[in-house]
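Readers outside the structure-tokenisation community will struggle with the description of the input data as it stands. Showing the layout once, in full, would remove most of the difficulty. For illustration, here is how one protein appears when written out as sequence plus structure tokens:
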Amino acid sequence: MLIYDFDQKTLTDLVNRWEEPAYRAKQIWQGLYQHLYSTPEQFTNLPKPLRDRLAESLDFTPLKPKLFLDSSDQMTRKTLFELNDGEVIESVLMRYGDPADSHDTSGKDSRSRRTLCISTQAGCAMGCVFCATGQMGFNRHLTSGEIVAQVMYYAQMLKEENLSVTNIVFMGMGEPFHNYDNMMAAIDRLNDADGFNFGARRMTISTVGLAPQIKRFADEHRQVNLAISLHAADDAERVAIMPVNKRYKIGDVMEACKYYVEKTHRRVTFEWALINGVNDSPEVAKKLASKLRGLLCHVNAIPLNPTTGYSGEATSRERANLFKETLEQAGIPCTIRMRRGIDIAAGCGQLAGSIE
């Protein structure tokens, strides 16, 4: 069984069954999530027979790095992992800011962020036509431990540079809310104050808009950020690029988002991939503004990451700026995000799709 699939209680129960003192569970937990140990041999505060039993009974390496690509500016690394059953997933590390300012371990220096883009499924069932993962189809859900292990892999890598993870976004391969229970269990493990102690407000979940799960998420009053991949302002246009809109129309998504804001008083971010000639005109921006008016929200727009399975192209800088200005004139805050890792196909699923 995978060590990262255990929460504190189940780990304590296991240690008790092994007739070890209960404090051993805490030592293992802190070794994993505070010291970032990745092998039983590193737990030198445990007696050797217990280290041997951990090695025999539990899996510490669920992710086998199969391939990694670094962008030409060395600010983005994409890693393809093979799982124990042969499925492949990918995760991305994106660095922001001046590398000369990055040698802090507090995670508080806004000039230098290390953001992880983490997968929650092998493949995806949502079928968004512009997304390489959607073009692959769905293979399986990841366990909570396989989700956590991606974060630990990069945390261990950054530790060698005296750096730490500053932000985590669950918008890699897969739809996080389709794998809701495992996703939330992973978040709880990462957020645990006795372990990795990663702040909830530094994590973001991105969903295509599964309305019932958005409401469930609202009812849990979590501090984790919510992002909605919207990409179109009316149902006919959205269903053409996002088949999920057949089940949850824009009106359903907006109603769920309003419920979320009323319940949590937290802002919703709307992700918008700017596709040249499709959804990047001032007219579309005005239509979007009419949908969002009165909602506590922000629009994150980014020129499309090209994929081989979709013929659409990224918008130009001029059209992106005009889209942003039109939204802001209507009172909707908007940011144009940088595209990262284009030269290494860092968009979700592009590397795994090419391997398959």
